[in-house]
Amino acid sequence: MSLWGFFGPAPKDLFLEFNPLGSYWRVVTWNFDLKVPGSRQWTVEVQGPSSKVIHWLRSGGNELLFFEKDKLIRRKSLRGSIEESRTLMNLAIHSTLKFGIESGHEFMRAPVSGATALDFQSEARALQWIQASFGTLSRALETLRSRPDLILTAACFSGIVPETGVRVLRLMAFNLDIFFYLQDDFSLLIVVFNDRDQGHGESKAPAFQQTIKVTKPQFYDEITKLLHQLAQVGEIV
């Protein structure tokens, strides 16, 4: 590793340069792929004209790693007061999630041709399922506020998937793996996998799958509320 990784730009300047504006793909993760048992890791990533990644690692102490175009440009062990760095990292998490959500607002308002009254009736039943399932997930997230011994393992992906070109908002938290596909005809395809006691990606058959045409904003509001709660519960404290 070069000395540049240790004595590169100031972390505050790198935080200020981290901006989801103009990105086509964004990722926020909490404690995915932990290398050291008992450690914690927060990650934000934006892919666009210039890819940037920030890792906050906590294993005994606190450490920041900044990457640009897959190259480590700064590594900083945090000693003493970490309040400023913590505030900036939490801001990066919130702003990345917020941009990912807001980038779908125009799509949700766009009408879908060919929608019928039968679509509306079917979507009303589907919304009840989504509200019940997301409500269970919301209550599970809320337990983390009073249980510091529990580890939050979650991830949010938003934007255009680099490998496929598909536009998606994806949330993985606890046993649910939720996909909101923003399709070319302006319909919203929702697919939810319930992995229960298995690892993420183990369930092959979706617990829920439906194309939404009439009531897209109502469904989007449900995942927006979940992501807002996740951002708060997942803050570095």
Describe the structure.
- This protein is α+β, with helices and mostly antiparallel strands and 237 residues long.
- It is globular and about 60 Å long.
- β4 and β5 form a beta hairpin.
- α2 (11-17) packs parallel to α3, α3 (83-102) runs antiparallel to α6 and α5 (117-143) runs parallel beside α6 (216-233).
- It contains 6 helices and 10 strands.
Described by strand count, sense and barrel closure, the largest sheet is: 10 strands, antiparallel
Overall pLDDT: 92
Q: Which structural class best describes the helix and strand composition?
A: alpha+beta
Spans of 5+ residues with little confidence (pLDDT < 50)? none
Strand arrangement, major sheet: 5-4-3-2-1-6-7-8-9-10
Query: Could you give the count of β-strands?
Result: 10
Helix and strand pattern: HHEEEEEHHHEEEEEH
Distance between the termini: 30 Å
What topology emerges from the helices and strands here?
Layout: H1 4-7, H2 11-17, E1 25-30, E2 40-47, E3 52-59, E4 61-68, E5 71-78, H3 83-102, H4 105-109, H5 117-143, E6 154-160, E7 167-173, E8 176-182, E9 188-194, E10 208-212, H6 216-233
Antiparallel strand pairs: 1-2, 1-6, 2-3, 3-4, 4-5, 6-7, 7-8, 8-9, 9-10
Helix pairs in contact: 2-3, 3-6, 5-6
